[in-house]
Amino acid sequence: MLRSIPPILSPDLLWTLRAMGHGDDIVIADANFPATSMGARCHRLDGITATDVLSAILTVLPLDSFVPDPAIVMQVVGDPDVVPPVVAAFQTIVNTTADTPVKLASLERFDFYDRAKSAFAVVQTGESRLYGNIILKKGVIGA
Amino acid sequence: MLRSIPPILSPDLLWTLRAMGHGDDIVIADANFPATSMGARCHRLDGITATDVLSAILTVLPLDSFVPDPAIVMQVVGDPDVVPPVVAAFQTIVNTTADTPVKLASLERFDFYDRAKSAFAVVQTGESRLYGNIILKKGVIGA
Amino acid sequence: MLRSIPPILSPDLLWTLRAMGHGDDIVIADANFPATSMGARCHRLDGITATDVLSAILTVLPLDSFVPDPAIVMQVVGDPDVVPPVVAAFQTIVNTTADTPVKLASLERFDFYDRAKSAFAVVQTGESRLYGNIILKKGVIGA
Amino acid sequence: MLRSIPPILSPDLLWTLRAMGHGDDIVIADANFPATSMGARCHRLDGITATDVLSAILTVLPLDSFVPDPAIVMQVVGDPDVVPPVVAAFQTIVNTTADTPVKLASLERFDFYDRAKSAFAVVQTGESRLYGNIILKKGVIGA
Amino acid sequence: MLRSIPPILSPDLLWTLRAMGHGDDIVIADANFPATSMGARCHRLDGITATDVLSAILTVLPLDSFVPDPAIVMQVVGDPDVVPPVVAAFQTIVNTTADTPVKLASLERFDFYDRAKSAFAVVQTGESRLYGNIILKKGVIGA
Amino acid sequence: MLRSIPPILSPDLLWTLRAMGHGDDIVIADANFPATSMGARCHRLDGITATDVLSAILTVLPLDSFVPDPAIVMQVVGDPDVVPPVVAAFQTIVNTTADTPVKLASLERFDFYDRAKSAFAVVQTGESRLYGNIILKKGVIGA
Amino acid sequence: MLRSIPPILSPDLLWTLRAMGHGDDIVIADANFPATSMGARCHRLDGITATDVLSAILTVLPLDSFVPDPAIVMQVVGDPDVVPPVVAAFQTIVNTTADTPVKLASLERFDFYDRAKSAFAVVQTGESRLYGNIILKKGVIGA
Amino acid sequence: MLRSIPPILSPDLLWTLRAMGHGDDIVIADANFPATSMGARCHRLDGITATDVLSAILTVLPLDSFVPDPAIVMQVVGDPDVVPPVVAAFQTIVNTTADTPVKLASLERFDFYDRAKSAFAVVQTGESRLYGNIILKKGVIGA
Amino acid sequence: MLRSIPPILSPDLLWTLRAMGHGDDIVIADANFPATSMGARCHRLDGITATDVLSAILTVLPLDSFVPDPAIVMQVVGDPDVVPPVVAAFQTIVNTTADTPVKLASLERFDFYDRAKSAFAVVQTGESRLYGNIILKKGVIGA
Amino acid sequence: MLRSIPPILSPDLLWTLRAMGHGDDIVIADANFPATSMGARCHRLDGITATDVLSAILTVLPLDSFVPDPAIVMQVVGDPDVVPPVVAAFQTIVNTTADTPVKLASLERFDFYDRAKSAFAVVQTGESRLYGNIILKKGVIGA
């Protein structure tokens, strides 16, 4: 454990967050997400909710202000406009924790997978609520 | 996720529990334990308590009945007879969950490290209670 | 060996089943199937029938309910409508063991190979009955 | 599958049997044996009995005639003279299948482990009968 | 060395023959063939003729009866209809040793290379006779 | 770059600091130190002073309070009692930045090397001042 | 440290500069640049400015005189003609240090990324000034 | 060193020359050539002229007689018909040392790079004369 | 194949012979020798006699003249003074082919194994004559 | 090639010289030296004399002034006091090129090997003069 760094951030996850640069994506995925087959680096945080992971990551990761949608969730299959409870919770955390709060955008399930395949890394959590997935694009920290 | 298998057991940890044989040791370690430098396989379960991990592991792992002490904790430095709260919780879980309940034995801190260095694997949890470490020796399952 | 987990499930196969996510495919293949050249992870269970492997896997793996055909067999070359004995046995096992029983779909031999090449893993069994091959798509486990 | 070679002999096991030379040991181990932690190459044949594996291996492997005890089993802990049923079955197979039938020798459990640690390979079977372990020393084939 | 298995079949080559499945190709190549640059697994048998290797392989490998041409040689550059002595010798061995004797088919030099690049493996022999190359497609062994 | 984490801490160094446990050592070394040949993980921070690195590390790393000397420098060869300027600067930083300020202990040059060889990692800085080396022992963070 | 070689040039960076040939590109990137995801070799020089790194590299690296634009910077997003202070500093260094001084060319942000993806290596510096990125093409040294 | 083999041929280069087959290319490159970024195997012979390397290689390597141009040099940029001194020296060596002397062909600089990218290997010499690059295609050795 | 180099010398074996230096040992072993378990590099030449391999190696390898016994064979178990036919053939080849002919020395079987374990490499041949093993120590080639 | 760095210093050798620290040894070895079996990193400079390599290395490497003998050669076997011509040439180069000229010390052949086994690296040159071996200990560069 380290001083002032959330203990949920494992050594591998800290490495990834620090090595990512402007415009790189990271996926926080629920327990059912096919994270290993995405091809990207896969960090596991079994047993932890996606909302706890999002809170921890946003304390250190800046969001990208060069694009309109730096945070994207997965649409419910067959009902793209519904907002599942876990997604509502994501929005609350982004509003309160992100350096630059934004409204969450969304992608259809297989479009979300395609985007995830080119991400820098996927964090597989133990989130048991369905649709507990979110993609974050890293921003810059100025001089 | 799989049917009937505790979701805390990650792919790597399941591999280890299944590959271990009679007499192999596994260490469940707290967040301050020097797990990486033990040399053994190190599986991380950041953010989860050692007691939750112990419960999950004992649902699948048989304890060794060929030895008197198949479950061993670390003694408090300078006060070897005290029973820290997390150790008391370990004892309760072993009593209720293990296939063969036993009284926990204990080892001095550096003797515990030496034993851990020859273990099959160490599971580093997010346990924040000090002395949240326990070694389990795997038993056999008969015909 | 572990408590309550079918001993046919080897360490590597358990790892794979646990790491797979929603929509990932696994192939159970007979002894003549070109499993190594598919490119996917290949786990061998020489000497065991494909039906025994199917039974063991379905005790832990949920089938995908988002698609109409989560279980697919290979058509007999030159006679696509015949149902070989091993396939009939597959259907019986799916009916009795799967979380969501379904009617097996089928693919022409080389279409089956193409599908297998993008699978998460192939399990090569010792099945000596011809056409003893089946693809399963993993489902989700709800909150 | 290959013509005239027992299908139980997997690609990795065939490699090992062919690569072994005069005096190299191979261990056939039961399902509870700590095979992975022996350090040697570990080949798994989950779900197959040790007796079936012994029969298959002896059809291709010559036993060493330079030493008095080329085949060794593990003694029952606390009762070294008893002959468990699986060991009796081993003796029958050696008598009928080996190129040079011999009486099985035996070693105490931890001496057996020490010998196994310097073996060329360990084959972990699905043998559920306790003490289903045997070490074979490879012999020569003359001009 | 092993009982009843031709000693020319090295550990790596045995592994390959056993791991190949229905429809996988293996190339037996002469000493001048660009085996390493084909990309496939390359097993070397320097100093041995391609005809000796063909004989040894056909004692264990079934030919594919699902295709008309499971055995293919390379055409002489500029004279595709001539039958070089080593090819005539290949035909004699196939006639006498294969489980299902067939007439050898042939491919133009660069078509032969393209086919070899997708093979399971190439065996580079010490064959000094030009055009001493043949591709074999593995068949099935029934129940 | 990350919010609130000193940018000098590279991805690999953050990984190491987070993966270290109670009692693990890390060495901050000057530009002339034989870091690569110590055998431990070697992280390079060429061009940065050892004092800047010490400040950054102590903002996140707790010092071990179980031992009397959690911070150790190298003695000047031939003059063990002298305090080089860079060591004086180290003491000031420890006094102001460490969670538990301590007086620096010291070791003879080759004893320092022996201690470094069993460290978790060495950070090679660009420090050009001679004797700019210090070993830190990680402490615990309580519940 | 070595005689007459700038100490900022780390072992890995020296290897890269020496191994590069005529026409190979190297990218000097600021602290926000997505260097790891470019795919090229990534050398880190955390904590050092891009201008210091440029000066050190140009003391040993010849610029390519076969192309008109051997040194290229990234255009400001939305304002391609502005010259940020760090780019002005780059131009001064090139004028005074390069073997063949040239006027810096520029590329749009994503064109710059595409060019960086085919570079020989990327050096990630600790440069905190935005747009502190430059690509250099290596030239030849005559007989 | 070995009897009768030119000592310039290093272990890795000998391996490559022996493993190459009919039609495989090898590039002998000057000190400025971008050998590492070609992707092929790269063997370095720093400090030796390309002409010395050509002489050594041709004592063991047969040239391909199936193609009209088994030896190809790089054209001078902007003056494709000029013959640089090092190329003239190459022609003399081919005339006197090759098993089948041929007139050197030539390729434009970037066509030469494309051809080199599909070569079996590149040998980077210390040749300081510009345009000291040549591609050789290996031939066959008959029975 | 290469001009003037015996085709039995495979790419890996040529690499080894060229990389060996003064005083390094190479073992030529028969088909029953436990070559893989010696730990050294193992090159296979299945199907070729040890005498053919010895002849080919001695055409390029100088024997060490700094020691009295640069060539050593294995004594027959139980009859150390007998000279098996293959050893007599070895002596003839050394007499006629080595740069410095010597009388073969001999070692007891397990002493021979110990010597082989520290060799640079072992060449496993297809030699079927028992005791077809010989160790050669490489010499120097003067200016 | 790089500006102002001797072209004999290859990428790997430059890496090594830069990564070495105070007290690390590097061996420059002749063409007969058993460099590969020393265990250390082995860099080859086939075809170049040891004296040329020594000159190039000493232009960048400082010698250790903390020990009396930072440069050591190998004694002639059987005549330890003779000074071979290549050693005399080494002394001249050290006198003229080293930052701190010293008289060469010497070690008996096998003591020299033992010292070389713990070196940071060995550079195998093409030096054909016998006894063309020298060990250099790296020194420090002050502030």
Automatic annotation (TrEMBL), chains A, B, C, D, E, F, G, H, I, J:
Keywords: Isomerase
Catalytic activity: beta-D-ribopyranose = beta-D-ribofuranose; alpha-L-fucose = beta-L-fucose
Gene Ontology biological process: fucose metabolic process
InterPro entries (UniProt xref): RbsD-like_sf, RbsD/FucU_mutarotase, RbsD_FucU
Recorded GO MF terms: D-ribose pyranase activity; fucose binding; L-fucose mutarotase activity
Pfam family, one: RbsD_FucU
Name recorded for this polypeptide: Ribose ABC transporter
Organism of derivation: Meridianimarinicoccus aquatilis
